[in-house]
Amino acid sequence: xxxxxxxxxxxxxxxxxxxxxxxxxxxxxxxxxxxxxxxxxxxxxxxxxxxxxxxxxxxxxxxxxxxxxxxxxxxxxxxxxxxxxxxxxxxxxxxxxxxxxxxxxxxxxxxxxxxxxxxxxxxxxxxxxxxxxxxxxxxxxxxxxxxxxxxxxxx
Length: 155
Known about the structure:
By secondary structure, the protein is mostly helical. The protein has helices at about 10-40, 40-50, 60-70, 70-85, 105-125, 135-150, and strands spanning about 60, 90, 100-105.
């Protein structure tokens, strides 16, 4: 059965397109800023943050993939690039030879610790300072609602 699409109203289309444009511009600006100030890609930063969010600084490949919501092939290629730069290492899993861990190195930890203050200042300047406390709370509620819906919806 071929259903007629429920097209977006002008107000819905305006909101949606502005949201997409905001996401694209913000992501591009953050990527350029990370590259210029820390010599990190956004992908590097995302992986290093995920690893520093766990006490041991190590995650199984599949758990890291879930944490950053990436496909296995993208994650494997990114980790290979980061291994070459000395930011992470791969450790085999003693309990299961088919599995492996990604572990942040001392150099990776030093890199993220050096990048984080500037990154946070950029987030503050571009997003946080542009919003009132009420607007920030609204942004958090909206983001949480959409994330919950995405987590519940089938892929």
